[in-house]
Amino acid sequence: MSDPIRPDAAQETSEAPAGPQICVVIGRTRHKMMQIEIQEAAKRGARFLELRLDFLAKAPDFKRLLENKPCPMMATVRRPADGGRWGGSEAERLTLLRQAIVAGFDWVDLETDIIDSVRRFGSVKRVVSYHNLRELPDDLEKIHAHMCRQDADVVKLAVTAHDPADNLRVLDLVTKAPKPTVAFCMGDLGLPSRILGARHDTPFTYAAFNKERGIAPGLPSFEELKNLYHYPQVGPATAVYGVIGDPVGHSLSPLIHNKAMRKLGIDGVYVPFRVPRGELPAFLKAFDRIGVRGYSVTIPHKEAAAAAAVRQGPNVETIQAANTLVREDDGWAAYNTDVMAAVASLKANLPPTPDGTPSSLHTRSVLILGAGGVARAIAHGLQNQVGTLAVTNRTPERAFKLAEEVDCRAVDWNARHSVLCDLLINCTSVGMHPNVDETPVHHSFLKPGLMVFETIYTPETTLLVREARSRGCHVLTGVDMFVRQAAFQFEMFTGREPPLELMRALVKRALSPVAIREEV
Length: 520
Hints:
This protein has helices at residues 7-10, 31-43, 62-66, 90-103, 140-148, 166-176, 191-196, 222-228, 253-263, 280-287, 302-308, 314-319, 337-349, 373-382, 396-406, 463-470, 478-494, 500-511, and strands at residues 21-26, 49-52, 73-76, 107-111, 125-131, 154-160, 181-186, 204-208, 239-245, 268-274, 294-297, 311-312, 324-328, 331-335, 365-369, 388-393, 409-412, 423-426, 451-454, 474-476. The protein has 18 helices and 20 strands.
């Protein structure tokens, strides 16, 4: 048989490409747009397409849809109960599926309750599918066993996750399946199952050509799976890392870690795991089964991560919060790279003194705005590195507590403008979306020569940053700290020197309002 990976060979066979591969889902209401996306998807590297015929506003014109077919294509007509848009009768739907099979599609998707009603035809391959938009059913394994006995080439199960461990249950199905199986969880809790199926011998996974079409809950785009997670290169030996948080979908960590590993030729994949508050210990225990080697940890799990570790780094012992977990022989070791990154960022970006001599943190008078997790990390990191240190917070009790921890001065929030300092560090959320038109200090406080460190990095250019620059301050944005904390994590995870400039370029471009979505 001809090589199905080659675009010219793809037309000669009904086989889906050898895995792990991505089945790109196209759903449009107009034939013209569906035709355009078929060709564009192929140009971008798609080698297997699913056409959602239930999206079309008019009866499918198979001649138009199959014209210049660039690769194997699957016909699907999904019912609303299964997440589709079909508005006709069930008899009409079955007729349409039979017509699609005869018309020249290479594959057809048939739900488990109707597959026995549609006869096999020629070389057209069959997916038997089951969709549950409500839950992961208790009898999932029984349902799967029944489907494996049906006349199909691939079994597909799409269920709804309500717990992070649901991902493991569907991955177990794939691993033990007597027939090739595609199984995953829908929704943001289920993204790991869509990515990690490649480590468990699934024949393919699904991705949207256009995420804006709302094809299925939590369905990633083709570009994400191909160029962010490098899904086609994921295999049984691929090391797994990830970021734990809630929410976690906005995180830039998968971008920079996956790209950095690809740059250095490391066989690894970095996955976002949404873990609800209070569930970290259970999550860590459950996911030990797949051998995750390291986690970045963000809100709201930093304190729980510190408590879950068998070994704590020096900064973690002090502040009892960790943003990094690294797998060791006897369990998890916890670190706080925020502390390391903040100090490294400041030292690397201090402006020279007026006479041109190198500057030092030891001569700086520092005012920290805020008393939350980032403020605590930075305050502990600077405790013995600066001339004087003061903290202020809108909730005074938290400021006094932090000041007592690091043996510095606490200042009432309303008196913050009276503090004399030459280094201002904003650790509050003021200026972050949606409050982008707010700033934590009055512009009159921003004098030429003052160094302003803004720890917010989304957006990078906050109102504080804009005003500080316009008034001659030396400004350090949160991007530098974010990149450095990720770089420290990367080195801990992989033992390799991180490509710092690549990571910085990726973050800056991702945050740019005019960013062009193409691979770096």
